[in-house]
Amino acid sequence: MSAGGVPIEALEPLVRNPAAAGIFMDFDGTLSEIVSDPDEAIPLDGAVEVLDELASIYGRVGILSGRPVSFLEQFFPHSVLLAGIYGLETLYGGERRDHPLGGAWREVIDDVAAIARARGPAGMKVESKGLSLTLHYRTRPRLAPKVRAFAEQQALRSGLECRPARMSYELHPPIPADKGTALLELAEGLEAVCFIGDDLGDLHAFDALDTLAEEGQYTLRIAVHSNEEATELIDRADAVVDSPKAVLELAEYLRDSARR
Q: Which residues does 210 contact at the CB level (< 8 Å), separation at least 6?
């Protein structure tokens, strides 16, 4: 038997003692469908309510995303922990915190965003997130080499780090913060931890689960299939689900099983 494609036996350590378990996941491509315009992404119908219910049962439930907290908090209640921009911004229990080293880089991001809009490859979409910048080529796949070259050039000029992402390149401050560091903080003291993701940035969360497993916690890595999937993430996963809808089915199972 399975839930959303994940074997029931793999979920048992999570539902056995939910108060000591954590359920964490990405947003885009995991709780929402992939869309051409990132501004139009929304959670699947019912996803917000299910996560709110999970948060009332499990020790911790959270979203770890490359999106800024300001985007995520328009959907999710304070019962759901939010780590935005790969952990540079957090919202825990209604308390907003920014990484102490982040503020100095906002002007740098603004400067690079302005240059990207004025001199970047035609057809490239520029998405500024305050503490990071994403350069998209989703609607123009042939632009990938030019977007990469532009992103690497701006990283060299500005001191930002260039990271490949889903049909895009991202520019980040050189601060040791990612989904892995965020997950390690959120999972402290838990007995069992699950993370669900679909993109290259989620590999850091899988790395964090490796660390937690070495320390004796039960861990479960779940990857989400897509037309643009990260093969390395699929290869690292303990289980693979077909779509965000399967993630929702899995979340519903975790909710219902823990209530029994």
A: 219
In our burial notation (b when 16+ CB lie closer than 10 A, e otherwise), range 39-64 reads eebebbeebbebbbbbbebbbbbbbb
Helix (H) or strand (E) segment spanning residue 180:
helix 179-186
Q: Which residues of 170-208 are buried (b: 16+ CB within 10 A; e: fewer)?
A: bbbbebebbbbbbbbebbeebbbbbbbbbbbbbbbbbbb
Mean pLDDT per 10-residue run, the chain (260 residues)? 89 96 97 88 96 97 95 96 94 89 90 97 94 93 96 97 92 93 96 95 96 97 83 93 96 90
Its pTM stands at 0.88
Q: Give the H/E segment covering residue 177.
A: none
Q: What torsion, rounded to 10 degrees, do the Cα atoms 77, 60, 134, 96 define?
A: 60
CB of 99 closer than 8 Å to CB of 110? no
pLDDT given at position 159:
96
What is the C-alpha to C-alpha distance for residues 125 and 113, in angstroms, rounded to an integer?
10
Tell me if 154 sits within 8 A of 117, measured CB to CB. Answer: no
Q: Quick one: tokens of 129?
A: 């997130």
DSSP annotation of 138 reads T
| pLDDT the model gives residue 228 | 64
49-56 contact pairs (CB < 8 A, 24+) = 50/248, 50/251, 50/252, 50/255, 51/76, 51/79, 51/80, 51/251, 52/76, 52/77, 52/79, 52/80, 53/255, 54/23, 54/251, 54/254, 54/255, 55/79, 55/80
DSSP 243: S
Lookup: tokens for 178: 């990612």
